[in-house]
Amino acid sequence: MIVCSCNVLSDHQIRSVMHANSPRMTSQVYGCLGCSAQCGRCARTIRRIMTQVTGACSGDCTCCPRALAAEAAHVDAEGAAVVA
After folding, report:
1. What is the distance between the alpha carbons of residues 62 and 66, in angstroms, rounded to a whole number?
2. CA within 20 to 30 Å of 6's CA: 19, 70, 80, 84, which one?
3. In terms of pLDDT, which residue wins out, 58 or 22?
4. Contact at 8 Å (CB) between 42 and 5?
5. Is the dihedral of CA 4, 15, 51, 72 positive or negative?
6. Quick one: which of 30, 38, 25 has its CA closest to 14?
């Protein structure tokens, strides 16, 4: 799937760079692929692919969507227990 229309980058290319070079920032991914961010709309998707490849999110942090969803579910469960 094309992730970046400006540079015509695919998710396969992003994953290949992640496995070969282990970049830590999206700008490094662009650099490894011989380009740079143009409009920036793909940066969030590239970051998501980077996280998937590295498995970096354990859900222990307080800022990522996974942690926020887990906390919301916990609060909902506590609220249901109080009502019951």
Report:
1. 9
2. 19
3. 22
4. yes
5. positive
6. 30
Least confident of 12-16, 19-23, 63-67: 63-67
Q: Which amino acid is at 31?
A: G
DSSP alpha helix (H) spans, 8-64: 11-21, 26-32, 43-54
Q: Quick one: tokens of 32?
A: 């490894």
Summarize pLDDT for 39-79 with one digit per residue, the tens.
999 999 999 999 999 885 555 555 555 666 666 776 666 65
* Residue in the block written with tokens 């998707």: 45
Token digits for 77? 């469960």
Whole-prediction pTM: 0.64
